[in-house]
Design brief:
The protein is an alpha/beta fold. The protein folds into two domains: about 5-185 and about 220-245, 3-Layer(aba) Sandwich (Rossmann fold), CATH 3.40.50.720; about 190-220 and about 250-290 and about 305-335, UDP-galactose 4-epimerase, domain 1, CATH 3.90.25. It has twelve helices and 13 strands. The chain has helices at about 10-25, 40, 45, 65-75, 90-95, 95-120, 150-170, 190-205, 225-235, 255-265, 295-300, 305-320, and strands spanning about 5, 25-30, 55-60, 80-85, 125-130, 175-180, 180-185, 210-215, 220, 225, 245, 250-255, 275. Strands 3-2-1-4-5-6-11 form a seven-stranded parallel β-sheet, with helices on both faces. Strands 7-10 form a two-stranded parallel sheet. About 45% of the residues are buried. Bound molecules: NADP nicotinamide-adenine-dinucleotide phosphate (NAP) and ligand F7E. The site of ligand F7E has 22 residues, from α8. NADP nicotinamide-adenine-dinucleotide phosphate binds next to α1 and β5.
């Protein structure tokens, strides 16, 4: 049975990836922080899934704890290691730049160096990001210049180059997946898509009056997270390690997302959305639009969910969810002015 370790298992992508690997018959070892915010909601169904019984293990761990990492690597000796854990919020990275660089940029080095020193044959996946392109003109592909615009993006550039360097220096089977934005009903509530869909459902229920947002003009290439974890897995199955852009090839503005999300329930976004400068960033990334031709040609990967389908699925999921207990983990979406 093939074995995989997934860091950030309780995150959006971690939960979809654990599901995918279990479906493919893997023994899956997820690493989560003891205080993880997502484990309760995103992984519980797998812990109680009889098909995953005896094949799904969660381990406490932290990206800052090399000893724990070495211990788990030696014990599991995984065929594949997916490094998904990160402080992944771009605007928050301006508030906590040092810890962001440590968790998001330096921790991948801990994993690469541990795999190398232990002499494991483990294939390594690094969760790189379109944010690395920053202000580079669209469309962006694997050859586009990197111009990061936040501490988060700088950290991802460091980790990307380290991944390539360990491949070139030591022959590690190390892959960097440069993924453009991908969303789902499991998206963290302080990212703009989920903040909007959560607010739409709260407004429909009469629990919220307004939605405070920052820059509505930014354009993103938004895909479905379930499709993107399939691309991660395909990258590690390829004969030789390489780097791949994963994207839909279409970009839409935050305003267009609002238009569709509010329109889906018969509302006009202009009646509810209010500007709040607190949600602007010191440096914005204006336009990300990916060219995933290489992933299509080599991995035979294409996205299956359109932008419209993604937005309506997210709104419908929030409308159907009656669980208010998860709502206030991050309060960005609320009328009450709070941090995030
Ligand atoms: P996410 O939902 O924020 O998940 C990240 C996970 O990392 C969370 O479960 C978090 O755990 C964990 N984590 C944070 N700090 C940690 C630490 N010190 N030790 C151990 N775990 C820690 O992010 P995602 O959307 O699933 O993204 C997965 C990866 O892909 C991230 O590396 C992200 O930067 C990258 N990426 C995402 C996108 C996207 O659009 N989603 C695009 C490109 C790249 P807690 O629950 O404890 O906070
Ligand atoms: O912002 C604008 C904001 O926080 C998208 C992460 O997964 O994808 C994600 O990073 C856009 C930005 O995602 C609000 O200024 C307006 O232009 O949803 P976001 P992101 O910054 O693109 C990349 C690929 C990653 O790698 C990251 O890990 O929306 N925006 N008003 C807002 N954004 C937020 N969060 N909140 C607002 O109120």
């Amino acid at each position: 049975m093939r074995k995989a370790i997934v860091t950030g298992a309780a995150g959006q992508d971690g939960s979809y990836l654990c599901e995918l690997l279990l479906d493919k018959g893997y023994e899956v070892h997820g690493i989560v922080r003891r205080t993880s915010s997502g484990g309760e909601t995103r992984l519980t169904h797998l812990e109680h899934d009889p098909n995953a019984s005896g094949r799904f293990f969660l381990h406490h761990g932290d990206q800052l704890d090399t000893g724990r990492l070495v211990q788990l690597l030696s014990k599991v000796e995984p065929d594949e290691f997916y490094n998904l854990a990160a402080q992944s919020h771009v605007r928050v990275s301006f508030e906590i730049p040092e810890s962001t660089v440590d968790v998001t940029g330096v921790a991948p080095l801990r994993a690469l160096e541990s795999i190398r020193l232990l002499g494991l044959e483990t294939r390594f996946y690094q969760a790189s990001s379109s944010e690395m392109f920053g202000s580079t003109n669209p469309p962006q592909n694997e050859l586009s210049p990197l111009h990061p615009r936040s501490p988060y993006a700088c950290a991802k550039v460091l980790a990307h180059h380290l991944t390539v360097n360990y491949r070139e220096s030591y022959g590690l089977h190390a892959v960097s997946g440069i993924l453009f934005n991908h969303e789902s009903p499991r998206r963290g509530e302080n990212f703009v898509t989920r903040k909007i869909t959560k607010a739409v459902s709260a407004i429909v229920r009469g629990e919220q009056q307004h939605l405070f947002l920052g820059n509505l003009d930014a354009k993103r290439d938004w895909g479905f997270a379930g499709d993107y974890v399939e691309a991660m897995w395909r990258m590690l199955q390829a004969d030789s390690p390489d780097d791949f852009v994963v994207a839909t090839g279409e970009a839409f503005s935050v305003q267009q997302f609002c238009d569709l999300a509010f329109g889906h329930v018969g509302l006009k976004w202009q009646d509810y959305v209010r500007y709040d400068a607190r949600f602007e960033r010191p440096a914005e990334v204006d336009h990300l639009l990916g060219d995933a031709s290489k992933a299509k040609a080599i991995l035979d990967w294409t996205p299956t969910v359109s932008f419209e389908e993604l937005v309506t699925r997210m709104v419908d999921a929030d409308l159907q969810s009656s669980d208010k207990s998860v709502v206030d983990l991050t309060t960005e979406h609320n009328d009450a002015h709070s941090h995030s």
